[in-house]
């Protein structure tokens, strides 16, 4: 008990990152002290370090630590399967992804958003165009849920994405009408649809996607930055720009 109290007092004395950094070993090797510090000051560790600490705790202390990081998402993106809902044998094999800083929105795009009286600009993802994204028979751009950086849909849009044509509820997906600005700031009207798969889902820009591809002469393996923003709160726009 005295040792635990000493550790807690030590944790309480750490008030800044520099102090903590001087105390840590390099390369990082998790120890009992780290398991204790995590429970009181998780902000001092990266997600990768937490994974190592958690593994140490399970092996040597006999229990699993719970993440205490706050959820930074803006709005729920529907009942899409989340990592905590997946079987343990699948989540344990998932690689930790390090998110790079969001790219800066070009000034000409900012000006266009201002002209439309838009706001809530959000960087969504860096998208690599695959052959399926350029297939005229498919006529859609896929945006896998696990590659989208944040949740950006409203509850109304989430509900709309579930709707199907016909009274039986088994017809085609209705989708949400959205507007897309291409790299030259030309505007297109498309449909956003959600396709559910076994362990995840995909958001797709469909209906007139072929027009966007042919107008811009998009090619396989080309990469795009994708942002979203809103006009008059209920109009959803996407911005596409070449990487």
Automatic annotation (TrEMBL):
Disordered as annotated region, ranges: 70-96
Keyword check for NAD: no
GO MF term (any one): DNA binding
Protein location: Nucleus
Keywords in alphabetical order: DNA-binding, Nucleus, Transcription, Transcription regulation
Record-linked Pfam families: At2g31720-like
A GO-annotated cellular component: nucleus
Keyword Nucleotidyltransferase: no
Positions with biased composition (Basic and acidic residues): 74-84
Primary subcellular site in the record, as a coarse category: nucleus
Residues annotated as signal peptide: none
The protein's name in its UniProt record: B3 domain-containing protein At2g32645 family
């Amino acid at each position: 008990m005295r040792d635990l109290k000493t550790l807690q007092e030590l944790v309480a004395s750490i008030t800044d990152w520099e102090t903590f950094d001087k105390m840590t070993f390099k390369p990082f090797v998790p120890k009992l002290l780290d398991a204790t510090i995590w429970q009181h000051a998780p902000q001092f560790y990266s997600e990768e370090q937490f994974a190592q600490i958690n593994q140490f705790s399970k092996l040597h202390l006999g229990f699993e630590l719970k993440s205490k990081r706050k959820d930074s998402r803006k709005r729920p993106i529907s009942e899409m399967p989340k990592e905590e809902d997946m079987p343990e044998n699948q989540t344990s094999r998932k690689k930790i992804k390090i998110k790079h800083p969001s790219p800066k929105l070009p000034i000409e795009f900012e000006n266009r958003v201002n002209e439309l009286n838009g706001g809530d600009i959000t960087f969504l993802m860096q998208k690599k165009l695959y052959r399926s994204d350029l297939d005229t028979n498919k006529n859609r751009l896929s945006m896998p849920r696990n590659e989208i950086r944040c949740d950006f849909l409203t509850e109304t849009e989430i509900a709309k994405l579930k709707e199907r044509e016909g009274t039986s509820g088994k017809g085609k997906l209705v989708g949400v009408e959205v507007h897309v600005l291409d790299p030259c700031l030309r505007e297109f009207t498309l449909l956003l649809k959600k396709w559910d798969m076994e362990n995840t889902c995909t958001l797709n820009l469909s209906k007139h996607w072929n027009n966007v591809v042919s107008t811009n002469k998009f090619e396989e393996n080309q990469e795009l930055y994708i942002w979203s923003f809103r006009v008059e709160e209920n109009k959803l726009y996407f911005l596409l720009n070449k990487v």
